[in-house]
Amino acid sequence: MVRRVVALLEAGEPVPRALPVAVERFGQSLRLLHRDFLAGRAPDIARVRAREAAEQAGRARAAGLGFSGTIVAS
User: Fold this and answer.
1) What is the model's pTM?
2) Can you tell me whether residue 1 is helix, strand or coil?
3) How far apart are CA 46 and CA 39, in angstroms?
4) In this predicted model, what pLDDT tens digit does every residue of 34-64 receive, in sequence order?
5) Which ranges of the chain does DSSP label H, i.e. alpha helix?
6) DSSP assigned state of 40
7) All residues at 6 or more sequence positions from 47 whose CB lies less than 8 Å from its CB, including other chains
8) Burial of 61 (0-12, 13-18, 19+ CB in 10 A)
9) What are all long-range contacts of 45-50, with beta carbons under 8 Å and residues at least 24 apart?
């Protein structure tokens, strides 16, 4: 994902506001999932963040993305 973010920035592809939000929410969901796994808890909050990330990625795609942006959103 990092390589694709660099590629989209270097190529000057559009970066709708929703794309960085999606990436941030995705990162949050991974951190929460890791903590829940270590604690033996159900990943309820991680699921919520993952859904929020998916919603933001959908908004970013609707706003228009280039090739690398589409891969990041996917």
Assistant:
1) 0.88
2) coil
3) 13
4) 999 999 999 999 999 999 999 999 999 999 9
5) 2-10, 18-39, 44-63, 67-73
6) T
7) 29
8) middle
9) 49/25, 50/25, 50/26
In this structure, what token pair is assigned to residue 19?
A: 């794309």
User: For tokens 């390589």, what's the residue?
Assistant: 3
Note the pLDDT of residue 15: 97
Q: What residues have CB less than 8 Å from 64, skipping those under 6 apart?
A: 14, 16
Q: How far, in Å, CA of 30 to CA of 11, rounded?
A: 28
Number of separate domains in the chain:
1
Q: Which domain holds residue 37?
A: 2-73
